[in-house]
């Protein structure tokens, strides 16, 4: 079984039309940090909030989407190399 916690996390609050390009840029950042699998999410209740989680190996169980990290920061964007 692989690690369940992501090694790369990034989030942003922006116009949803910009998410696709932002996701692509974050995928490259994650790859540069050794990630081989990512999960890309948009909050159902706030379409402006997007989150990327990356793992060095695909986990058997990714766990819940880690919205609490983005929402508790109170920032427009941010990254965390590790939780």
Description:
The protein has two helices and four strands, in the order βαββαβ. It is globular and about 30 Å long. A hairpin with a 6-residue loop joins strand 2 and strand 3. Helices cover 25% and strands 28% of the residues. It is an alpha+beta fold and 83 residues long. The protein has a four-stranded antiparallel sheet, with helices on both faces. The two termini are 19 Å apart.
Brief sketch in words of this structure:
By secondary structure, the protein is of the alpha+beta class. It has helices spanning 19-32, 67-73; strands at 8-13, 37-42, 49-55, 77-80. The protein has a four-stranded antiparallel beta sheet with strand order 2-3-1-4, with helices on both faces.
Q: What is the percentage of strand-forming residues? A: 25-35%
Strand order of the largest sheet: 2-3-1-4
Order of helices and strands: EHEEHE
Q: How many beta-strand runs? A: 4
The number of helical runs is 2
Structural class, judged by helices and strands?
Answer: alpha+beta
Instruction: Work out the radius of gyration.
Output: 12 Å
Q: List segments where confidence is low: pLDDT < 50 over at least 5 consecutive residues.
A: none
Helix content: 25-40%
Anisotropy-based shape:
globular
Q: Mean pLDDT across all residues, rounded?
A: 86
Task: Give the N-terminus to C-terminus distance in angstroms.
Answer: 19 Å
